[in-house]
Amino acid sequence: MMDHDHSYKALFSHAEMVADLLRGFVREEWVNELDFSTLEKVSGSYISDDLREREDDIIWRIRWGKDWLYVYLLLEFQSTVDWFMAVRIMTYVGLLYQDLIRSESIHKGEQLPPVLPVVLYNGDNRWQAPVDISELIIPIPGGLERYRPQLHYLLLDEGSYHDHELATLRNLTAALFRLENSRTPEDVQQVLQALIAWLQSPQQSGLRRTFTVWLKRVFLPGRMPKVRFDEIQDLQEVHSMLAERVKEWTKDWKQQGIEEGLQKGLQQGLQQGRQEGRQEGREEGLQQGEAEFLLRLLERRFGPINETIRTRIRAADSQTLLTWGEQILTAQTVEEVFEA
Q1: Selection from 139, 103, 135, 133 nearest residue 117 by Cα
Q2: Which of 42, 146, 158, 245 sits at a 20 to 30 Å CA gap from 8?
């Protein structure tokens, strides 16, 4: 089965995906000066001094005025956050510059091109690592601080985006993030309808096919492990299959969500309970873990949750939380979650 790294590399090997990533997620004025018609992929396989290859990363370049801007896209699909990612980024950018110098793309006396380092992360835990190398280095006043290196990378933490933020964007990268964060078959159908409408031209057939391959080899098997998708060849076929089996799939997704919620809630609760060291602490820890996970699910499904609902959830017992958890995947509004 194609893993996330390879499938994302295939998706972001299409210029349309990189263009929408820059347009939709780099919210800075200089992006307006980019000439997107000049986007071209650079060889992503280069060798450092210790002969280690970085073949999984993706490098593009684009004209910014008369000069080239390089976009270094690093795909991060680990279960844990890499606290020292900024060190890795500094190393990879340095290797890119070395490669440009060795290939004589840059000559003596010329300045190096700017590089935009992007870390695309889709782990369950939110990213907490520093996004600048300087934050990892102890500051020493008195003049030595000027020697402290500074290099910032752009973090795209997929799970931190709410659906209501992304749904308003006519953006392919946003559609990918919405699929990754989807909680029901209806959510997937909605995004698929948009992709089918956006990828109609013959020139987009390659990207359309890449999305289809990702859906049937990575995304759907992860949600529906008992279903075979070998015969699916197009986005429209994925959409049609969802429409035909939406009730069955909703039941499966609902059960999967309940099991995952219970497991995570129990893990968080037990951890806090052990820290308390008392039975009361364990029981309270279980309830708090379940409550916080339910709040996270609500935010992912409906966006920001007001303080009244937060207070109600944190005051509820475990059985009530379980009941609300069972209703969250089929509710159309946050209010419906709490209906009897």
Answers
A1: 133
A2: 245
